[in-house]
Amino acid sequence: MIILAVESSCDESSVAIVKDGKDVLSHIILSQIDIHKRFGGVVPEIASRNHVVHMTRIFDEALKDAKLNPEDIDLVAVTKGPGLIGSLLVGINAATAFAFAHEKPLMGVNHLHGHIYAAGIDHEMKFPALALLISGGHTELIYMKEHMSFQLLGTTQDDAVGEAYDKVARTLGLSYPGGPIVDEKAALGKDSYHLPRPFLDKSEYHFSFSGLKSAVINLVHNYEQRGEKIDVNDMCASFQASVLDVLIEKTRLAAEAFDGKQIIVAGGVAANKGLRKRIFNEILNREIIIPKMEYCTDNAAMIGAAAYYQYQKKGALPDYLLGGESTLSIEDEGE
After folding, report:
1. DSSP reduced 3-state for 18
2. CA 273 to centroid of chain Cα atoms
3. What gap in Å lies between CA 319 and CA 217, rounded to an integer?
4. In sequence order, what DSSP letters do the residues of 125-192 get, joined into one string?
5. In this structure, how many other beta carbons lie within 10 angstroms of the beta carbon of residue 327?
6. In whole angstroms, how far apart are CA 294 and each of 115, 169, 253, 297?
7. Strand order in the sheet with 129-134
8. Residue 241 DSSP symbol
């Protein structure tokens, strides 16, 4: 099955063509990071306007790179949410128009399902599995007993981990997006500030990073008031050590409690080099799979991968795209 997939949930405009959920025939991503960097974060209206400018062109580029014509496409898939509503609508309208014009079935895909299935592009997914989904907007532990089965075990009670990275980076005078920069500087420093580890109730799998973020902000302000300087590398290392201690320990406990054969780490923060190194070193009794770097951040290939398995289970349902479900979170489709 050849699927043309569209992703526009935030500030990446992406179209990919994926065969049978694994073979990526073409993959176009246009990032708006340089546009939004001056604002310190994504401005929704600017993001949606830029999607409009480029969307038609990247449809054409994806088909050209795959050496395919529209009639070769079996299914059109598009991110239906969660995400920025204006950005989502650009992708949804473009995918709908393409599907209508070429008489192709259309399917809406949950953005979070896409992140998880990004790991399945280059790896075999084995069940039952435990997925750690970490990004700028989400921090979740999900149990999967089979394909397209999602049981939410724990989620963030306040800030998502990627959001906390961005806010800490801003506090330290670092640029946007903060995650890659904090990760880079953490490798140069040491855990000398001994920040708190926000485990909450260890018998549950929920997360909380707001207090950790506040601890960093307060410590930086206290140093400034005394006329002292924070060692940025050490602060990044201390913050990241705290975050990774919590993420890895919660994931390990959940994998053992639910006897997961495999741990899937997905989402933008899955690109974090410190996390990649530590989780393989510290969880030795479970197979761990992580998407390639290019599939960690928002992209259409992951939507095409998820769409393939969703189609096997549900088929293409045109009314499934918009019927009041454009902002579903992952737990709304669990079993």
Report:
1. strand
2. 15
3. 46
4. --SSEEEEEESSS-EEEEEESSTT--EEEEEBSS--HHHHHHHHHHHTTPPSSHHHHHHHHHTTS---
5. 12
6. 12, 23, 29, 7
7. 151-155, 139-144, 129-134, 262-266, 287-289
8. H
Bridge-partner residues for 4, per DSSP? Answer: 17, 76
Instruction: Give the list of residues 6+ apart from residue 39 with CB closer than 8 angstroms, or none.
Output: 46, 176
HEC per residue, 70-126? HHHCCEEEEEEECCCHHHHHHHHHHHHHHHHHCCCCEEEEEHHHHHHHHCCCCCCCC
Q: By the 8 A CB rule, do 303 and 78 touch? A: yes
Angle between helix 210-225 and helix 161-171 axes, rounded to 10 deg:
10
Of the candidate CATH numbers 3.40.30.10, 3.40.50.80, 3.30.420.40, 3.10.50.40, the domain formed by 125-290 belongs to 3.30.420.40
Compute the half-sphere exposure of residue 203: CA atoms within 13 Å on the CB side of its CA: 0
163-188 per-position pLDDT tens digit: 999 999 999 999 989 999 999 999 99
Written as one letter, the residue type at 231 is D
Q: Domain 2-116+295-333 in CATH: superfamily? A: ATPase, nucleotide binding domain (3.30.420.40)
Residue 166 to residues 35, 40, 45, 183, 303, Cα–Cα distance (Å): 16, 9, 20, 11, 25
Please state whether the predicted TM-score (pTM) of the whole model is above 0.70. yes
Supply 177's token pair: 């997006």
Query: What residues does each domain of the chain span?
Result: 2-116+295-333, 125-290
Residues 238 and 190: their CA atoms lie apart, in Å, by: 7
Residue 188, Cβ neighbours under 10 Å: how many? 11
Question: Which pLDDT band holds residue 316 (cuts at 50, 70, 90)?
Answer: low
Whole-number Cα distances in Å, 248 to 150, 197, 205, 288 = 20, 12, 11, 12
Would you state the pLDDT for residue 314? 78
Following DSSP, what letter does each residue of 250-277 receive, concatenated?
A: HHHHHHHHTT-SEEEEESGGGG-HHHHH
Q: What is the CA radius of gyration of the chain?
A: 20
